[in-house]
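ESCALATION

Customer reports they have been waiting on this structure for their group meeting. Please prioritize. Original submission:
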Amino acid sequence: MGQLEQPIDLQKLSQRELLILVYTKVEALEKTSVQQTEKQIGTDIQLAVIKTKMQIWAAAIGFATGLLGSIIILVIAKVIEK
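Update from on-call: job pushed to the front of the queue and completed.
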C-alpha cells in the first residue's frame, strides 16, 4: 500500500497497469465499505440497547410516579375525611 500512496503519473502507465491500479483501489474501497458497515451495525445495536434501557427506565419512573401520586391522593383524601 505504501507504493499506492506515492504520486503516480497515470499518463505513463499501460492499460494493464491502469487496470491493476483501479482493481487495487476498488478492493481497498470494498474493505473500507465492509469495515464501515460492521461499525454501523455495532452502532445500531448499541443504539437499540440504549433505547430499550431508556424505555424501561421511563416505564419504571412512570409507574413509580403514578403509584406515588395515587398514594398522595389517598393520604390527602383520608386527611380531608377526618
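Sent to customer with the following note: The chain has a mean pLDDT of 91.
Escalation resolved.
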